[in-house]
């Protein structure tokens, strides 16, 4: 009964936050988020274990504890969606095994120890390519492997999770993953069933920690609370859509993450390249990635001016645009490691350099000033 009362009380508090945000959402001006994330708290700095370190010989990479876990992750995570065998004719930018090996080897040389993939990326071949490369170039205990589950038969049902974790482990060639992430919220499966299945993967030794990905704040709270009420493990990380031209997470989710002591590993930190180059650059991926076009090009009129400001700041410091965009993310207290997907070694090296670029408060304010509210992209509706 006491747990039930606490749940209702906390739910009311969250509902109040959501209602307040909703009341002002339609009339928000350009400077809604210009105050930065300073009142989000100091989750990263409050814990001495979260202080950045340079422990890999010959690199300038920095590391941070991922939330309340003991996972020490590099401040840049290599996203592996660009690795694998094409599943359609327009996936012309994908890297084959040899090129994936080269990219992963260089990542390790740069001090990157955190790798993110998913069970359905390129028909599972992303996991296969990553697993083979790690066996060639690293000791398993020296890297942090994350994979995801949801876009599969059964989504987040008990049966599906138990089946899919075994499939992922087989493709990765390992007997455990460090971080197992629910790829989206599942409207078809009871939350208790999902959290029970995830908890079992940890108790069975197949998973060390669990995380989640893009969803609405009330859904995240519901999953965490149901896990607590049943004595299950809770999420330690949130892989959400967050970058300089998509900041809707600042409305509700980031305040809730601070309260839950959960850190972010944002995906699409460079907005599919739009924060790393001229908006209309003629690259292979920009021509053929229809999903990225749907996600970003409809807001070109309000977003491109922000990209031009990124370019201005990059020229001011003599660095690449991607270094500026990533340095902005890394200035946020709740951001642990942006997930960077690249197809060129030079882009990977730029990403690694970003951990040592410190933007001034005036730089940050200048980059944030023009932001306008966007429709939600990432969290899915029923």
In short:
With 382 residues, the chain is an alpha/beta fold. It has 14 helices and ten strands.
Q: Explain this structure to me?
A:
The protein is α/β, with parallel strands linked by helices. It has a single domain (2-368), classed as TIM Barrel (Alpha-Beta Barrel), CATH 3.20.20. The protein has 14 helices and ten strands. The chain has helices at 2-25, 43-46, 97-109, 125-137, 158-172, 191-203, 217-230, 253-260, 284-288, 290-296, 300-317, 321-330, 345-353, 361-368; strands at 63-65, 72-74, 77-79, 114-116, 144-149, 177-182, 207-213, 235-239, 263-264, 339-340. Helix 11 (300-317) packs across helix 12. It is globular. Mean pLDDT is 86; it is low at 1-42 and 44-55.
């Amino acid at each position: 009964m006491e747990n039930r009362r606490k749940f209702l009380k906390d739910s009311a508090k969250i509902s109040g936050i959501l209602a307040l945000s909703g009341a002002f959402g339609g009339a928000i001006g350009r400077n809604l988020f210009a105050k930065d994330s300073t009142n989000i708290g100091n989750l990263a700095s409050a814990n001495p274990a979260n202080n950045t370190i340079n422990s890999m010989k010959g690199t300038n990479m920095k590391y941070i504890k991922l939330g309340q876990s003991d996972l020490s992750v590099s401040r840049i995570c290599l996203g592996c969606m660009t690795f694998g065998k094409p599943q359609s004719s327009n996936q012309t930018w994908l890297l084959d095994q040899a090129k994936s090996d080269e990219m992963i080897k260089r990542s390790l040389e740069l001090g990157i120890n955190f790798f993110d993939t998913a069970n359905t990326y390129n028909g599972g071949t992303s996991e296969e390519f990553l697993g083979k490369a790690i066996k060639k170039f690293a000791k398993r205990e020296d890297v942090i492997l994350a994979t995801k589950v949801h876009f599969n038969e059964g989504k987040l049902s008990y049966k599906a999770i138990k089946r899919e974790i075994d499939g992922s482990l087989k493709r990765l060639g390992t007997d455990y993953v460090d971080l197992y992430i629910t790829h989206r919220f599942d409207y078809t499966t009871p939350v208790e069933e999902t959290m029970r299945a995830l908890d079992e993967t940890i108790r069975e030794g197949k998973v060390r920690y669990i995380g989640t990905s893009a969803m609405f704040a009330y859904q995240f709270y519901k999953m965490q609370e149901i896990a607590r009420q049943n004595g299950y493990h809770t999420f330690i990380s949130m892989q959400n859509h967050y970058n300089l031209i998509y900041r809707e997470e600042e409305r509700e989710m980031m305040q809730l993450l601070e309260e839950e002591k959960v850190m972010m590993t944002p995906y699409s930190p460079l907005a599919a390249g739009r924060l790393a180059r001229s908006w209309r650059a003629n690259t292979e991926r920009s021509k053929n990635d229809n999903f990225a076009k749907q996600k970003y090009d409809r807001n070109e009129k309000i977003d491109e001016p922000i990209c031009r400001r990124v370019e201005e700041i990059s020229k001011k410091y003599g660095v690449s645009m991607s270094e500026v965009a990533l340095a902005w993310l890394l200035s946020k207290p709740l951001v642990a490691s942006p997930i960077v997907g690249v197809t060129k070694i030079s882009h990977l090296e730029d990403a690694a350099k970003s951990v040592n670029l410190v933007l001034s408060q005036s730089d940050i304010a200048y980059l944030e000033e023009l932001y306008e509210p966007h429709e939600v992209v990432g969290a899915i509706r029923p």
